[in-house]
Amino acid sequence: MSKHGRLTSLAAVASAFLVAMAVLLVPSASAATLFTEDFEDGDSTGWSASGGSWSVVADGSRAWRQSGTSSDARASAGTTWADQSVQARVRPTGFNGSNRHVAVTARVQNTGNYYYLALTNAGTAVLGKRVGGGHTALATAPAAVAVGSWHTVRLEAFGSSLRGFVDGTQVVTATDTAFGGGRVGVATYYASASFDDVLVTDVAGPGGPTSTTTTTTTPQQPGTCATSDRPIGFASVTAWGQSGTTGGAGGPTVEVDTAAEFLTAIGRTGPLTICVRGMIALPGPMHDVTSDKTIIGIGSASGFTGGGLNIGLPVSAITSPPADAVHNVIVRNLVFRDWADDAINVQMFSHHVWIDHNDLSRGYDGAIDIKRGSSYVTVSWNHTHDHTKNMLLGHDDGNGAQDVGRLKVTYHHNWFDRTPQRNPRVRFGEPVHVFNNYYLYNTDVGVACQADSGCVVEGNYFEDVEEPVSNSYAGPGGRCVARDNVFVGESGQPDCGGSVQEPRDYYAYTLDDPNTVKATVMAGAGVGKVG
Prior knowledge:
Blueprint (H helix, E strand, L loop, with lengths): L9 H11 L12 E5 L10 E3 L3 E6 L1 E6 L5 E10 L2 E12 L5 E10 L2 E8 L3 E8 L2 E9 L8 E8 L2 E6 L2 E7 L6 E8 L1 E11 L36 E2 L2 E2 L9 E4 L2 H8 L5 E5 L2 E3 L4 E3 L4 E5 L5 E3 L2 E4 L15 E6 L2 E3 L6 E3 L4 E6 L2 E3 L6 E3 L4 E6 L2 E3 L5 E3 L6 H4 L5 E4 L2 E3 L7 E3 L4 E4 L2 E3 L6 E4 L3 E5 L2 E3 L5 E2 L8 E5 L2 E3 L28 H8 L7
Parallel strand pairs: 18-19, 19-22, 20-23, 21-24, 22-25, 23-26, 24-27, 25-28, 26-29, 27-30, 28-31, 29-32, 30-33, 31-34, 32-35, 33-36, 34-37, 35-38, 36-39, 37-40, 38-41, 39-42, 40-43, 41-44
Antiparallel strand pairs: 1-15, 2-5, 3-4, 4-15, 5-14, 6-11, 6-15, 7-8, 7-14, 8-9, 9-10, 11-12, 12-13, 16-17
């Protein structure tokens, strides 16, 4: 847990960074956390505020609230940094008049001079600068700003390049040289808001700083979204006739930006890398993906609305993997919103699937469901938020005929961000390996290990999770081993028992220090972070 936003020592940063780089995919080799603050110690020591009425309150977890709407309120912390990425969760609670906003700030010189990324009550995100107290908009874009809802807002300032992200999606860019360095902060302009989980790093988003003044990402040539990364965990294991997970490697690359192009591509036979540009509206509910495919988003604002992906054959009662089971599929760097059934459904003995660095929120049913005998799957570096039915592993207590001995899945470095349940909920799988994930305010349960499943839950960071791990959540009990986890805030203790197969019997992995997991996962999970 952060302590009053004090600067992390250089020695601690270096140690945490060397451990995290074993698995963290970020663009820069000099990544460091410069500053963090979650207000869980109940005060705001280290912050300087001007205007407004500021106090630490309970808002889910503890947060710093500016409760007045009749003033121009600003606060700053830290020291002078030149290159900086400042991120915070922001919850607008009221606006007084038109063209009002709540914001994060960067390169703060004083109360009247800084860069800002603001969410306005006009439904826009504004990247701007404040000079001598006056506001100048450098770039704007539409943004769904909901009073009473949390939004993750990130402002990057690297050299003369400025970029703004809302809920993991880059929305604005600009160039400006007014301020070369400064502190970080938050602000409300005749508005009230809560702020939480402030994170400052020296790492830019995908591709490094941009030099464009438009509100879109720099154009990318067809095929450049392909990467040579490989998973760790069960997707890396040789089994069922498949050596690890390579997706579309060795095949051609296509770029798609319409639903028709995408649906044609995922139905092709043979290896294929599919680069998705922009947000594509898919008809619901789900669409079949064939074997040997990599589906990867370009930049940090590409993905799907309306429909989801089905990785698997039609449902049947067979109890052993068929020769034509869907296999060797990679889904990376994609935004999923408003899906009509599941966002990603893996079923019917599908195997060797890697689901990595996606942002999933506000859908109907499961975000990532894995069931009906599927196995050798890795779910890594995803950010799930604003959604209830998160991740299901095994769909029914009566499906043992297909599931026993299968459902071998690894979950690592995911950010389960206020997702109440199924983080994951597990039936029958063994071993299910859940390590180095960040759990934040999961109000129902964190890991639920049921129906004779076997879970190893290690090195995770649980914050305000009343029931972090349970093998007696609902229905038949399971077995679980919980070790080396961190429990902070209002978190309870694991309800665990029994023996479980060791993941190390299947693959090698490096476990991060759990005390560094929160900062590592917040900096690395979600879209725009693929190396």
